Records
---
Amino acid sequence: MSELDFSTTLGPAWFPTPVFTASGCASSGKELSQFFPLNAIGAVVTKSIMLKARPGRPTPRMAETPSGMLNSIGLQGPGIDAFLANDIPWLLEQNARVIVSIAGENVEEYSVLARRLRSVGGISAIEVNISCPNVENRGLVFACDPNASRAVVDGVRRTLGGDIPIIVKLSPDVTDITEIARGVVDAGADALSLINTVLGMVINVDTMRPHLAGKTGGLSGPAIRPIAVRNIYQVHQSLPKTPILGMGGVRSGRDALELILAGASGISVGTATFSNPVTIINVQKELRELLAAKGFASLRDAVGFAHRNE
Amino acid sequence: MSELDFSTTLGPAWFPTPVFTASGCASSGKELSQFFPLNAIGAVVTKSIMLKARPGRPTPRMAETPSGMLNSIGLQGPGIDAFLANDIPWLLEQNARVIVSIAGENVEEYSVLARRLRSVGGISAIEVNISCPNVENRGLVFACDPNASRAVVDGVRRTLGGDIPIIVKLSPDVTDITEIARGVVDAGADALSLINTVLGMVINVDTMRPHLAGKTGGLSGPAIRPIAVRNIYQVHQSLPKTPILGMGGVRSGRDALELILAGASGISVGTATFSNPVTIINVQKELRELLAAKGFASLRDAVGFAHRNE
Amino acid sequence: MSSINRHAKHITATVVGNKRIGQYHQILLSVGDIVQSTHPGNFVAISVGGENSAMILRRAFAISRISHRSDKGDGTMELIVAPHGSGSRWLCAQPEGASLDVIAPLGTAFGIPTAPAQALLVGGGYGSAPLFGLAEVLKSRGCRVDMILGASTASKIYAPIEGKRSVNSLKIYTEDGSAGISGKVTDPIPGLIQEGVVDVIYSCGPMAMLAAISRIANAAEVVHQCAVEESMACGIGVCMTCVLPVENSEGETKMLRSCIEGPVMDGANVQWELVGKVAK
Amino acid sequence: MSSINRHAKHITATVVGNKRIGQYHQILLSVGDIVQSTHPGNFVAISVGGENSAMILRRAFAISRISHRSDKGDGTMELIVAPHGSGSRWLCAQPEGASLDVIAPLGTAFGIPTAPAQALLVGGGYGSAPLFGLAEVLKSRGCRVDMILGASTASKIYAPIEGKRSVNSLKIYTEDGSAGISGKVTDPIPGLIQEGVVDVIYSCGPMAMLAAISRIANAAEVVHQCAVEESMACGIGVCMTCVLPVENSEGETKMLRSCIEGPVMDGANVQWELVGKVAK
Ligand SMILES: Cc1cc2nc3c(=O)[nH]c(=O)nc-3n(C[C@H](O)[C@H](O)[C@H](O)COP(=O)(O)OP(=O)(O)OC[C@H]3O[C@@H](n4cnc5c(N)ncnc54)[C@H](O)[C@@H]3O)c2cc1C
Ligand SMILES: Cc1cc2nc3c(=O)[nH]c(=O)nc-3n(C[C@H](O)[C@H](O)[C@H](O)COP(=O)(O)OP(=O)(O)OC[C@H]3O[C@@H](n4cnc5c(N)ncnc54)[C@H](O)[C@@H]3O)c2cc1C
Ligand SMILES: Cc1cc2nc3c(=O)[nH]c(=O)nc-3n(C[C@H](O)[C@H](O)[C@H](O)COP(=O)(O)O)c2cc1C
Ligand SMILES: Cc1cc2nc3c(=O)[nH]c(=O)nc-3n(C[C@H](O)[C@H](O)[C@H](O)COP(=O)(O)O)c2cc1C
Ligand code: FES
Ligand code: FES
């Protein structure tokens, strides 16, 4: 079992294990460090950071749903300056591998964020969260618009040059995920993250209004796993050479393997961390054992294995 | 409580109660008639019928998922002739109100099906299921293509004239559901059904291949309810005058109320019938009691109530 | 009303016994009146996981045996359950006194010969479960009942001592030789047919076993009734997930629902080679 | 490692008592060592619904009281649970001997005065739960402890007899007058402050009650520590769902996580009028 090569790569970025946190589900890492050492996992993916400090949405910000939950946080965060001053140095001190997630309100903001990160040493990759409203186009989510999503990635790529790998995180709320995927890969994405939350809503039958202050919210957790697997499978089929960081309802090694067989090279664990802070460690252990038990010599051999003989 | 007006309309079609079966989740009605009289519910929505008899997909055709299931039946059915000869007369004999769901492989087929149904007396409405692959356009699902979905509805409308109300059933697997909705309403839909299943996939970790013979399948059940509520809310907001038949994960009166507050005028119960054949009767009873307890004088007053003061 | 699901009732059953036997659990349910309309081959569909369960579908189990004291309306049903995945494990963990949400009886039953006949009952794994109830009925109709049970290993053989009373002979086969004869249940069948001691074969077990028996029975032109097992979402005929390719009298292959036109089917009609293949 | 969640442990706790008291369940958990680092105000996060639960999030409950026989490592924790929705109902249905998946202790604790002081403890509904544990600590530090409990009706008052021993006075208010004085817990507070018998107010209960007490305390410039209750998805600071608008020392309002920077907060800093409103 010690023979298994459990390492993975997302484009030029190398990680000793393929199990990561999911953006927005581990804050900036400090809160989890009480439960396990952050360098024991593949990488910490930080909460999407924006240019300025943001208070986010009012409460209620969450609703539990059958085998899932809705959230509507509204990208609350300290802004890039405070983030670079406080969070990054602390994470690097822990010897954690860090993937910084960024989000902007317009195409330009993403480039500005990329520029700020370019000079910071020690970051493994940037995850570009394009599931945000584009304030310059009637609030249309970048990830739902092939042109806007390309433009964002194009800008970030130009700014970063080849210095830091770019992972672009896509939304499943589109008619054809492969079209968006091809666009951002053409624009310079090294890898893709799939999937962000699915847009949903809960009506509170007591108040008889939408339960979340933000009305709609993002659906996550085991309920969406079949949607994640389908998106990963479709994108891997269409772009077999583009590495995928898979996420959506993973809470066990078995679940992680499902996404890997569909085409993911790495796994982010999000909502499952809320039910159990050490889920990531368990997933990592179970996945390693499962791969070994199935006779794989390396994680890499299992990536996309469900597509064989197609 | 006896005061409550529990009736509903979907365009010109009137129903004494707003709770229906969901297409494909009650076969042609016979199987459920052992558990309750079919005329006790709002209407029986029959399994989507096609022109010719179809064997459907090979097995496995289903996979259970957290709070949901995937199905890939492939529209197995006897074809319109056998359906009209056997199923419709039987249903009408039971005094059931009947909504016939139709599905075609190309735009023309929908019109042909509509023509066959036009002459049949006693049908309350036709549900046009456009979540099928269009064989004339690389298998692209009609419901994912604004032009194709309009064309289908346009053809059916022309064929039917004003004789039978048309309910068009949309797929949630699109970037902008309101665009598709507006298109089919412009083309003559009297009402909309929301939502069909969400495209998903399960990988069998033993065989390490997609579990379903059809690879992808449709996700249904409580897991998708927040997606259904969101779609219904968005469409009702965009087209407040268009009646909506809501479905997706309803298994209690509380769930039904959620969809009604979001904008549905009627409710189809699908997957929940598999867990309990009398779910529809329970939902109907609970919904009636809930509406009365909340002080509504009629179901109609509750439709879209979550949008008030917007 | 149609005749489909004619006897099916939605009831709350009480667990009155739960005993481990080898790798299985023998679960005894108090079910009331419905035993009156229950026949060997029928199955039950049980909700699993409790009120807040993420498992939304029922699980199907063959009814192994029934007993009634009809005067008291307190019939019982026995199930033999293999703890396989999360639902069956949950069921096996239910203590005496637990309430279960059950729909039963469902599906077709084994056909019983109108005149005494020589019956061969072949079971694989927990597939032996419904055969003991069947054996009792056959014996009471004056049939000769020979039983062959097989499994990969001894602990997967289900053959209760009481059950042995209702058969004329019982042979056990295990693939690893850990009990009975080393080999497969299908090994002795051609010989028995040749000897002329088999008028009808009844079988229940893994699909591959049923297919193999069908080939033997077809070749020898012996009637073969088998109880199939396809994944079922509803168990009552409304979802179309449980279909099998079956040839009808006109020679056409139709996808039939194994929950209402099965689980007991005529082995000669099932198109075993088409199961899980692209439909015609 | 940071100091957030410093004492939090993920443990399996055993239910050693479950008693109905009025509309609540008093649930006693055997939790081992962690009582050593548990303080009044801390809360637990419990998984609900069992292994196959469709409820994926933990439920938060205040720790009412703890007891330790530290030599044996067998500390216990008491919770007062209102059967509200499906998760809390499941918890209230757990029998003695059941195992629970628990993370504890979580969150901030009530600050204890360094010198003996006159403390007023105000609880609404099950909000009285943590106040009894707090009262014991305050008494042991030489404080005078007056307690006022309120609820809509008598059965929603939680005031166990043992608890009364640790307070100097206890007044009960019900809105329907079914127990104690008819009225709200907030009614007597201004008078008590005026009398000069209140150095510090501790409160726990519905948000509207905490807001009302804050207004009174702010006006009178009395220190007010309140334990808030916002919906929490994680309970450990990673999800940002449980935030409240709180003013910091520079006069800026920040959305603070009530799971790690609460539940005990300084009532004067919480911007009650902004809760649930568009953030600034
Ligand atoms: C007519 C019939 C009779 C049966 N009789 C028995 C019996 O007497 N004893 C017994 O132990 N088992 C029997 N089974 C199989 C039993 O239904 C499955 O073992 C059980 O559904 C597995 O559920 P799970 O949650 O433990 O497994 P999981 O693998 O977690 O189940 C996931 C889903 O797949 C379905 N599934 C998984 N395995 C099977 C299977 N082998 N057959 C059908 N569906 C499956 C489940 O119903 C569920 O919907 C029978 C099945 C059928 C259709
Ligand atoms: C710090 C803290 C301490 C608490 N202490 C107690 C206590 O001592 N005794 C007690 O009975 N209850 C207490 N609660 C409230 C308790 O957490 C909720 O009643 C419980 O979560 C309801 O879950 P449910 O499944 O029964 O209800 P549902 O309404 O089905 O829950 C659905 C979702 O909403 C959340 N939710 C619903 N109501 C509340 C609420 N009032 N507060 C927070 N989240 C809610 C649930 O956690 C869950 O995620 C406390 C809450 C917090 C945050
Ligand atoms: C509370 C919460 C906050 C999230 N915040 C972010 C975020 O800031 N940026 C981002 O790209 N994704 C965010 N996500 C999405 C997750 O990273 C992940 O893509 C999604 O939740 C699916 O995975 P899961 O089912 O494992 O949670 C958030 C999800 C949740 C539940
Ligand atoms: C097994 C199965 C078969 C279905 N067949 C059809 C169909 O033939 N036509 C159709 O329009 N929808 C079909 N549907 C979709 C349902 O009608 C419904 O839109 C969907 O399942 C969501 O509702 P639910 O969560 O209540 O099941 C089918 C769903 C299932 C689960
Ligand atoms: S299981 Fe639903 S039709 Fe057979
Ligand atoms: S509950 Fe998750 S941050 Fe407080």
---
Amino acid sequence: MVNLSVKIKDLALKNPVMTASGCSGFGEELADFYDVSQLGAILLKGITPRNRDGNLYPRMAETASGMLNAVGLQNKGVDYFISEIYPRIKNYDTNLIVNVNGSTVEEYIEVTEKINELDRVTAMELNISCPNVKEGGMAFGVSCPSAEYVTREIRKVYDKTLIVKLSPNVTDVTEIAKAVEAQGADSVSLVNTFLGMAIDSETRKPLLSTITGGLSGPAIKPIALRMVWQVSNAVKIPVIGLGGIMNAADAIEFLLAGASAVQVGTAIFKDPRIPLQIIDGIENYLQRHHFNDISQLIGGLQV
Amino acid sequence: MVNLSVKIKDLALKNPVMTASGCSGFGEELADFYDVSQLGAILLKGITPRNRDGNLYPRMAETASGMLNAVGLQNKGVDYFISEIYPRIKNYDTNLIVNVNGSTVEEYIEVTEKINELDRVTAMELNISCPNVKEGGMAFGVSCPSAEYVTREIRKVYDKTLIVKLSPNVTDVTEIAKAVEAQGADSVSLVNTFLGMAIDSETRKPLLSTITGGLSGPAIKPIALRMVWQVSNAVKIPVIGLGGIMNAADAIEFLLAGASAVQVGTAIFKDPRIPLQIIDGIENYLQRHHFNDISQLIGGLQV
Amino acid sequence: MRKIVENFTVISNEACNLTNFHITLQSDHPLAEVFPGQFTNIEIPDNKDVFLRRPFSIFEVNNENRTISVLVKVLGRGSLTLSEVRTGSRLSLIYPLGKGFTLPAPDERILAVGGGSGVAPVLHLVRYAEANPGSADVILGAKSETEHLNAIDSYGKYAGLHYTTDDGTMGVKGLVTDHPLFGDLARYDRIYACGPLPMMKAVAREAFRAGVSCEVSLENLMACGFGVCLCCIEPTVKGNLCVCTEGPVFNINDLKW
Amino acid sequence: MRKIVENFTVISNEACNLTNFHITLQSDHPLAEVFPGQFTNIEIPDNKDVFLRRPFSIFEVNNENRTISVLVKVLGRGSLTLSEVRTGSRLSLIYPLGKGFTLPAPDERILAVGGGSGVAPVLHLVRYAEANPGSADVILGAKSETEHLNAIDSYGKYAGLHYTTDDGTMGVKGLVTDHPLFGDLARYDRIYACGPLPMMKAVAREAFRAGVSCEVSLENLMACGFGVCLCCIEPTVKGNLCVCTEGPVFNINDLKW
Ligand SMILES: Cc1cc2nc3c(=O)[nH]c(=O)nc-3n(C[C@H](O)[C@H](O)[C@H](O)COP(=O)(O)OP(=O)(O)OC[C@H]3O[C@@H](n4cnc5c(N)ncnc54)[C@H](O)[C@@H]3O)c2cc1C
Ligand SMILES: Cc1cc2nc3c(=O)[nH]c(=O)nc-3n(C[C@H](O)[C@H](O)[C@H](O)COP(=O)(O)OP(=O)(O)OC[C@H]3O[C@@H](n4cnc5c(N)ncnc54)[C@H](O)[C@@H]3O)c2cc1C
Ligand SMILES: Cc1cc2nc3c(=O)[nH]c(=O)nc-3n(C[C@H](O)[C@H](O)[C@H](O)COP(=O)(O)O)c2cc1C
Ligand SMILES: Cc1cc2nc3c(=O)[nH]c(=O)nc-3n(C[C@H](O)[C@H](O)[C@H](O)COP(=O)(O)O)c2cc1C
Ligand code: FES
Ligand code: FES
């Protein structure tokens, strides 16, 4: 028997594999395929204080080994979440983590205070890295002062495990990571999507209604992995790695680079079972290599 | 007949397709396959003042729709170039553009002054974006003051067309572009490679001797295209676009996004004829869409 | 609703004409129940330029043989690769996806209109509803005779089959809405349409004018196909709805056309 | 030197054993001249996980039939896909690449050592040099009999064929350097080796001790294969050299082993 459980501050994960926000709905769609209690955690779809329609169609474009999305945080608002969705999902036997968004610090606080009351939401992910919204979002995540500010304000109102989700669209991601660590973040997750663009050469029009969108999938994995490695070496808090993870080998690379846990996003669109396959694959790897604890992999890169 | 020629300041290109630096040697290897005078320009391999051995093997790793390299500017130095290589290639009937590198501003100046004397080198590309060297390189390209400084000093000693090659590893590439434009750059080319990393999960070792390396290929195209579009909208000087261009449709997307010319890098490794196929493809596109001048495509994105 | 990811075996791949292929796929297990208008998201094998799955309406279902089939129109790189798939190869399918058409009551008269690759769900519907030529009409539209699907004559037992072509080489010359049956829509209780957007909009306009209930099946671009990505949304009177889970079939009254 | 990018047709693909495949490819045009030790960079079709070409030594050359062949050992994703290629399909090759072996003079005695996928260039050499069993010996090393290639008996007319296996199931038990022929290397004028790095280093050590000229063919990772990327370099006494253009064959005196 190998031990797959990890702890991110007070967040106890039965295994280090979570779904990524915006790629697994509220867990219900995955539950159509399998028992979601097998997952380490479900990162719920990004939530804002009030209903957001998101961006206009078309919202996605396929790219080489990846995709662009411009969903723009479509959601029905935190109150709807609490009254309609939370009751349906609160008995999943896994960690539910809310991805918190806002256009202003006040909006972030508003959502945070409300979800702080939910027993079964065991952690929150502060999204300061969404490239698909006009206000807030990534703007908070690309400069140290604003990242510090929003983290500090949220820390004041949130008691449980606070994960800050970092943007890769920066010159030095370690600076931002250190800044939010200093303000009390319990963990950082990275990366969110890269700002990208796609054009239809025949029609000479952008493929997304918003012109630019967020790039995800295997294409970004090498950059994401580098950032996770840099940040793991720069901060003391646990790091959660993501970006293009498609299989157990990919996940293990992020763990070796220093991540304590991983998230699976775009891969779910290709096959919703991939998170479970990754859990099995990691367990199998540990056995094959005669490790008995996942902690032996974390940061185990031999340089 | 359609017109494919473009001008970048004093640099007259018979068509907008160049090879990218470090991906086409000194043109001689391509000449083993075809007549290189068909190309708009050949970007020569990065040159430093003195011999550089480059980084240790292994220097490359394949990634999803791309590759990482850690060549590290291996070259025999500018004097060797001038005495041994230049005489062999100077009669190619196309533009020869030297990619200039250094660890210090003095080193950049040293190379620039020497190649300024070469009649057949019609332009230079100032590389302030190489992620694979310890000193100089990308360090100059990720902050405005240092990018400004090196551009200003080089402008003083270089008379012909000065192209500055920008790094994509920054929060806001338009700031750097505007900074070098203000210092007299005649053009900017972007993007150089993204800093990335690859790990062998089985051996738990990095796949590159340098741990991190530069990501190129189709994987990066959406991000490169976004940056070219942003920079084209931010500066008045012509922009040269590159990053993952594999075929004529890709090249046309960069032109539509605002590039006046394009460079083809990693695609050459897959098939050295791709730059020629792109020239044909652009010509064919213009005819098919009833354009008679390439200038009708440049910046022609319909938003 | 239970959904499945499963490898099916290609048991036949027949060219219907130059650009349409009828691919029949067999499961190793008993099939899940499939309703007309539902679709499957297929992993395209072996194509370096395709990253995501591609959605296709489920055309025919045979529970005994554990087979489903799809009609694939070659439009781009993914559908091209799929059209070249060989008998015996395995394809990963996610199914059944989406909500199907509202089934007609036994005594209702229906008109089903299919254009291009949109014929699959409407033919599935008339067969599934056990319609008959007395109560059901199908109009199939195409650019030219060469684009019409062969081997659908057997559907004559479920519906009156009518054809239109843009160039007049088969059936009535013109668009589907130019067919004489559109002259008197009021005799139908329900109209169903699937095909290119302009066609569906034209049908919707006529149905609306005639005051007949009409459902259309949308083909918005999809990433996941099962409701997690929110890429496929369609603006409706109920807000942005997911085409993959709350559609692909919509009543035209809900759409903002 | 003129190099070519060209689509070849697969005219046969034979399994030599569980992990080695002999693939013969036909050109539409007269072949370029190929020397032993030269290689080709092959575009791997249809595999979403492979981006770059993969280099393989040219094994047999038949100018009349316009065919060349490669021996592919399945090591990872690219070689696996290649090993499954079907007769009739087309593969894009870049060839001829690299510098080959220094050919032996007619009166020179040679020892050629091949391990694993490294047998292709050394067998090409003995055949090309029109060697004969009196003047040439070949030692082929493998882990076990099951990994030895069949259908190379015809090379008996060019050289004495000798085998070693790690487990002793065929020929001498042990590494290639455990073969008795290594007891008296001085009788050879030239030694050639291609195979796994440890094997080549062991052969080089023995050749160096015996003072016999020795060339090895390296298999460094490559991106382009024709000299533009500088990814494949090997440190030598002449500095970092490109294995793809200044090799893959090197004299051991030039290497920093
Ligand atoms: C619910 C649903 C059911 C469908 N049922 C069928 C079916 O039964 N038979 C069938 O042949 N097709 C069907 N389609 C459409 C099919 O999914 C697309 O034709 C296919 O995905 C195209 O993939 P490709 O890789 O060949 O095209 P690409 O190479 O990705 O694109 C080629 C061109 O077609 C455009 N395009 C691609 N997909 C669509 C789309 N969905 N709508 C409009 N334009 C598009 C692209 O923008 C591009 O210009 C259905 C789609 C949906 C959403
Ligand atoms: C000049 C030259 C000639 C060659 N001739 C032959 C030949 O005749 N027959 C033959 O079977 N092979 C030959 N090879 C090796 C062949 O190119 C590799 O085995 C092949 O590229 C592996 O690709 P893959 O996608 O299967 O492996 P991948 O999936 O890319 O890698 C699988 C594993 O193998 C390792 N690996 C991959 N390539 C190499 C390599 N070149 N050296 C060491 N480790 C490697 C990887 O690091 C990885 O651990 C030659 C290589 C060169 C450079
Ligand atoms: C369609 C889509 C929607 C997303 N929505 C959110 C979101 O609401 N909040 C968030 O923090 N990240 C969101 N993301 C980003 C992912 O959580 C993840 O950071 C990114 O996709 C990289 O991981 P991947 O390559 O595994 O997908 C979204 C990504 C996609 C593709
Ligand atoms: C092997 C390799 C070597 C490179 N060497 C240089 C160089 O010497 N100077 C430079 O400015 N860029 C260099 N580059 C970057 C390319 O010129 C180009 O900016 C980058 O690869 C993105 O374009 P692509 O995706 O078309 O390759 C190199 C790239 C590769 C892959
Ligand atoms: S396609 Fe993902 S939600 Fe509809
Ligand atoms: S593989 Fe590119 S230079 Fe040798």
